[in-house]
Amino acid sequence: MGSREAAEQEVRLLEKGSADLVPRDELVDKLCVARASGRPLRIKLGIDPSAPHLTLGHSVPLRKMRQFQDLGHTGVLVVGDFTRRIGDPSGRATTRALMGEQEIRRNMETYAEQAYRILDRERTEIRYNSEWLGGLTLGDVIELAAKYTVARMLERDDFAKRFAGGRPISVLEFLYPLVQAYDSVAIEADVELGGNDQRFNLLIGRDIQREYGQEPQVVMTVPLLIGTDGARSMSQTVGNYVGLGETPAEMFGKLLAIPDELIDPYLRELTDVAAAVSDRLPPRDRKRLLAREIVTMYHSADAASGAEAEFDRVHVRHERPTNVDRVEIPRELVKADGTIWIVDLLQASGLVDSRGGAKRVIQQGGVRVDGNRVGSADTDLAFDPPLLIQVGKRGFAEAI
Predict the structure, then answer these.
(1) What distance separates the 2 farthest-apart alpha carbons in the chain?
(2) Are 191 and 220 within 8 A, CB to CB?
(3) Does the predicted TM-score (pTM) go above 0.85?
(4) Are residues 331 and 311 located together in one domain of the fold?
(5) What residues have CB less than 8 Å from 163, skipping those under 6 apart?
(6) Which of 188, 222, 256 is a domain's end point?
(7) Closest Cα partner for 270 from 300, 248, 253, 292?
(8) Do 86 and 128 have their domain in common?
């Protein structure tokens, strides 16, 4: 097989499941040169440390990076510890709040461990863009800003809408795509991966690399994963996510709760399960197949079997969970007649964050004590420990 034919075959594999590849011919050329020279391509993916978990949404471009690695190339995971201080304005109707350095560092503490659940450790570089951005002088920033125009920046849909609507756009936000593009210069990226909402930013990377005398990167985007609510993109801010570092039980339970219309997209974008296998199954069994497969990928087959058995124990047969945290309830919360206000009990159990949260979950019908649903936030219960408290489908505690 000729070099170009082999490269074409690799591109057909890589573009499967992608949203966009710009420009395709350049990727074929880069793969031909890499094959001839023996120099692996450098595949960039930026991660925004805005929350402490990587999610199944992150796994889509991470799995694409792993495909490049399996073909012999180097994955460069760029953690945007410096750019997060600005905040990515993509798709936003208002200016994003700045995040402090300590919060950013807390969020990214476990990123490497989570990413290596997908990536090949031996073919991965993890870089923090404070390495190069933190050392730029004002003169460097002015030079970078001079390489792109406001008119080009306003071609971006979200900026154009905000400008037309008279909503503010800070100069800081204009800097975000420029410094993200400078990341590509710093690591000499050959290909940059990202969600399809990042297409504009990634294409700026091509322009900025040219300005700094580098060969421009190829841009490959992947579809944004819809979150577990079936309505919005997966986001920790929204809460509609499954985290790569979550327990098998948490993963399994969240995946069994997704709307049926997400089953096939999740199987297609998150797993290697062949469509021919899943198509023969009814939705209930396809959803269980999905949950087992995901838990197996990020934990183990035994963990998946255990999570499924525990789910059935608690939610199908309505039996007591195997492992429940025991919480000692302060006795001053118990009234003279031996009862305790349900709101105090929930807050003391640690299953809710506040009295307001306790009242909301009771109103939603999400609280049981010893298997009995609590119908009112005014309820006083006889405090006869141990009491098994359940909040929602997966929150349990034993009050003693």
Answers:
(1) 86
(2) yes
(3) no
(4) no
(5) 154, 169
(6) 222
(7) 292
(8) yes
